[in-house]
Design brief:
Helices cover about 50% and strands about 0% of the residues. It is mostly helical and about 190 residues long. It has two domains: about 60 residues, no CATH class; about 80 residues, no CATH class. The chain is elongated and about 70 Å long.
Length: about 190
C-alpha cells in the first residue's frame, strides 16, 4: 500500500485530531503500533508539526469518520489519476556483467535501424561510450565478426519509452535541419535580370 507523504507528521496529526485506534493509524502511515503509542504519549516526535492528510488530499473526512465508528476498518488513501514519476534518477545506471557483452549488439542494431540517432543519444540509451559506438560503426570493434544486431529493449539495456523519446527527438531535430533548406530549394530563384 502507498504510504502518505511524511508519515510521521501525518501520524502526529491523526493522533492529535482523531479518535482512530493506534492500529488504524499505524497501518495507514506504515509505522509500528508502538511508535504511534509513543507519539500519543509524547515520547517521540515532541514538538513536531502535524501534517493534515485531509488538506493534503490523502484522506477524506468521511473516511476518517467511518473508521472512527468502526475500529476494525482500515484507512484507505485517496487514489490520484496523476501518473507517478519513475523512481530512477539521473545519472549512469548499473549494467550487470551478463548484459555488458550485449551492448555492442544493441549499438549495431540502433545504427542499422535508426541512423538518425546521434552518438550521444545512443550512449545515453545504452550506457556506453562514443569510442565503442565508433568502433562498432567502423567495424573495428574487437568482437566485430561475432556481432549480431539485437534490439536494446529486448536485451533489457533500455526501456521502450526511452527509445521512443530519443527517436522522436532525433526526428524533430532532423526536420528542423531540413526545414529551412527545403523551403529554399522549393522556391524559385529570383533572376537578377528583372
Amino acid at each position: 500500500m502507498t504510504q502518505p507523504l511524511m508519515p510521521k507528521a501525518t501520524a502526529v496529526w491523526l493522533v492529535e485530531n482523531t479518535a482512530l485506534t493506534f492500529k488504524q493509524i499505524a497501518d495507514f502511515c506504515g509505522l509500528h503500533i508502538l511508535e504511534i503509542q509513543a507519539i500519543a504519549d509524547e515520547e517521540v516526535a515532541v514538538g513536531m508539526q502535524g501534517l493534515d492528510p485531509i488538506t493534503n488530499g490523502q484522506l477524506t473526512k468521511e473516511e476518517i469518520a467511518q473508521c472512527e465508528a468502526d475500529p476494525s476498518a482500515k484507512l484507505a488513501m485517496i487514489r490520484n489519476d496523476i501518473p507517478q514519476p519513475s523512481a530512477r534518477g539521473k545519472g549512469p545506471r548499473y549494467t550487470p556483467l551478463s548484459k555488458r557483452q550485449d551492448k555492442p549488439d544493441a549499438i549495431a542494431w540502433l545504427l542499422r535501424h535508426y541512423p538518425e540517432l546521434s552518438d550521444a543519444q545512443i550512449g545515453r540509451l545504452i550506457g556506453t561510450t562514443k569510442p565503442t559506438i565508433n568502433a562498432v560503426r567502423d567495424r573495428s570493434h574487437w568482437n566485430s565478426p561475432n556481432l549480431k544486431p539485437r534490439s536494446p529493449v529486448e536485451l533489457g539495456l533500455c526501456k521502450h519509452d526511452d527509445l521512443r523519446f530519443a527517436l522522436d527527438k532525433a526526428q524533430r531535430k532532423a526536420k528542423s535541419k531540413q526545414g529551412p533548406a527545403a523551403a529554399d530549394a522549393g522556391s524559385p530563384a529570383m533572376s537578377t535580370s528583372e
